[in-house]
Design brief:
Elements: H1 2-6, E1 14-18, E2 23-27, E3 45-49, E4 60-64, E5 67-69, E6 74-76, H2 82-91, E7 99-103, E8 108-112, H3 116-119, E9 124-126, E10 132-136, E11 165-176, E12 181-186, H4 193-201, E13 208-212, E14 217-221, E15 232-246, E16 257-265, E17 271-274, H5 278-287, E18 295-299, E19 304-308, E20 319-330, E21 340-351, E22 356-358, H6 363-372, E23 380-384, E24 394-397, E25 409-422, E26 454-466, E27 471-472, H7 482-491, E28 498-503, E29 509-514, E30 524-539
Parallel strand pairs: 11-16
Antiparallel strand pairs: 1-2, 1-3, 4-10, 5-9, 6-8, 7-8, 7-10, 11-15, 12-14, 13-14, 13-15, 16-20, 17-19, 18-19, 18-20, 21-25, 22-24, 23-24, 23-25, 26-30, 27-29, 28-29, 28-30
Protein name: Apple domain-containing protein
GO biological process, one term: anatomical structure morphogenesis
Domain Apple: 1-52, 59-137, 161-245, 251-332, 340-422, 451-538
């Protein structure tokens, strides 16, 4: 895999590995561009498709009536029509969208990373009145046609990142000025941060956005903030989400870092580096392996990056003002939520910084929604006990109100506010072991931890791993759950080495965390239609 990813003489689209001879063969073609050459091979040979390259530009979409994707990875909401769904599939960046279907009654777009090339006829499920579309990469074609112009660029999926992944850092209480902007979305209800982040990430012109929490509106921005930071203005009730291109190991959150302007964590430096930019400092924090980097402080004048195993919560007295620095909090490094309690309970007060709203019938169910939130780090919630039947009663936020002034709250009778308190015992080692005995098998183990490089997954459709018991992962929904399941597995570290996603009757899905992989002595891959197996791998 690493040889294919590192190939510079041609675009390596696939590789074949012979486990018996240890021979690796690289190719500029794959099973989609040369379907007739994709044939059965001896049991010792494995085919590896590179997902880090964009699809062939000559691909169009071929339809199959009365069907939709079986291996559904994500459901996109607020999609206007079938053409909009096709455009979302072309522009999707979290993985390569190979197939899609549009569900008009729900204004939803069903997106899958699989097609008949990877899953055969099992890739489709019957559904009268719904059309299934998959990429056809050997018959010519162009991206979405009349009425949907796309910016020109070097590849079929243009974007702002030529190197690294398009991610966001959140700057609460600030907005970016002086850049050309346009409305991204405006809603009547609060809690649109994740939706705004997704729309911006899939819009080639959007470099970031300002989110007005009072008006429930986000404005896309066509430029970035400058290194002097004079174009960032402090405005209560607004958050600026700056687009950044990160090469480090991200974790699938809607925003990866929380940035505090003119602040630093003083006196708790575990590593110090010269750094050409703030983004480079964030990459160093994400890739640090000798300790868990919970935060970084970047000094613009000295071009200096200081990494720390502490953050503003574990050492609040060290969180100080600094005219030359910004504090960067790594949201991918947080401890498991089972170590968190709730405090600072306040009645009749609502935090205005709502990142997501949903329905809940009690304070306890709203708290649970905060605990299991996977799209961002939920640090507080407000439960509204005196709202109408058509109003979401549970308001989740990625920030805690204890560090804000009274302008962050509004009076609201019947509201109950609470925030998380996640006490972290300071780690002196690279990993924090989970409570209780280790679930790893005894004897030789192929565990990828500690992974000093990039942690990701390889996917095998229509297979499952046999072995010991599997633990079901709780998800918010029961359709399009792949991304949520993989994020949860990543948070479990060595307690989850693989994920199995099962398609059950009615199109619903379930996923399971597995504490061993197919490479272990207790693991074995066997054919299993309607299942998909994801195994953690560590790539250099």
């Amino acid at each position: 895999m690493e040889a294919c990813l590192g190939e510079r003489h041609f675009d390596c689209r696939s590789a074949e590995y012979d486990t018996q001879t240890a021979e690796c063969r690289l190719s500029s073609e794959d099973r989609r561009t040369r379907p007739n050459d994709y044939v059965d091979a001896p049991s010792t040979v494995e085919y590896l498709g590179n997902q880090c390259l964009p699809p062939e530009s000559r691909c169009n979409f071929k339809s199959v009536p009365n069907s939709y994707p079986r291996y559904l990875d994500i459901v996109l909401s607020l999609v206007s029509d079938e053409m909009d769904c096709e455009r979302r599939c072309y522009d999707y960046t979290d993985f390569i969208c190979r197939s899609f279907s549009y569900y008009p009654s729900g204004s939803q777009c069903f997106i899958s990373g699989d097609d008949r090339a990877s899953a055969g006829n099992e890739a489709l499920m019957s559904r009268p009145g719904t059309n299934y579309y998959e990429r056809n990469c050997h018959g010519g074609g162009t991206p979405p046609g009349p009425g949907t112009p796309r910016p020109t660029g070097p590849g079929p999926i243009p974007g702002r990142c030529t190197v690294g992944m398009a991610e966001f850092e959140k700057v609460t209480g600030y907005e970016l000025q002086g850049q050309r902007g346009y409305s991204l979305v405006r809603e009547h209800h609060p809690g649109i941060a994740v939706q705004c982040a997704h729309l911006c990430k899939n819009d080639p012109l959007c470099h970031g956005f300002n989110l007005d929490y009072n008006r429930n509106e986000c404005t896309a921005l066509e430029g970035d903030s400058g290194p002097t930071r004079i174009d960032i203005r402090q405005v209560p009730g607004i958050a600026y989400f700056e687009g950044v291109c990160l090469r480090g190991s991200v974790c699938g959150l809607a925003w990866t870092f929380e940035r505090h302007v003119n602040r630093e964590l003083r006196g708790f430096t575990d590593a110090l580096f010269p750094s050409k930019s703030k983004t480079d400092c964030e990459d160093r924090c994400l890739d640090e392996r000798t300790f868990i980097c919970r935060s970084a402080s970047y000094n613009y004048r000295r071009k200096e990056c200081r990494l720390s195993s502490h953050d503003r919560f574990s050492q609040p007295q060290a969180f100080e003002a600094s005219l030359d620095s910004d504090y960067l909090e790594n949201l991918c490094s947080l401890p498991p939520r089972d170590r968190c309690a709730y405090r600072n309970l306040q009645r009749d007060r609502q935090l205005i910084y709502t990142d997501k709203s949903l329905s809940a019938f009690s304070d306890a169910s709203c708290q649970h929604a905060c605990d299991v939130e996977r799209e961002f780090v939920c640090r507080s919630y407000t439960f509204l006990s005196q709202t109408g039947a058509n109003t979401n009663q549970c308001l989740l936020s990625g920030i805690a109100g204890s560090g804000l002034d009274n302008s962050a709250f509004q009076l609201l009778p019947g509201a109950l506010y609470a925030e998380t308190d996640c006490r972290v015992s300071h780690p002196g080692h690279p990993t924090i072991p989970p409570p209780g005995p280790s679930p790893l098998p005894s004897g030789p183990s192929p565990s990828i931890y500690p992974c000093r490089y990039t942690l990701t997954y390889e996917k095998v459709a229509d297979f499952r791993v046999v072995g010991r018991d599997q633990n079901q992962i709780r998800t918010r929904g029961d359709i399009g759950i792949s991304g949520e399941c993989l994020v949860h597995c990543g948070e479990m570290r060595h307690r989850c080495l693989a994920v199995s996603i099962e398609n059950v009757r009615g199109g619903r899905q379930r996923c399971y965390a597995i504490d061993h992989s197919a490479d272990s002595e207790v693991g074995l891959l066997v054919s299993a239609p309607e299942l998909a197996y994801f195994q953690k791998i560590c790539l250099q």
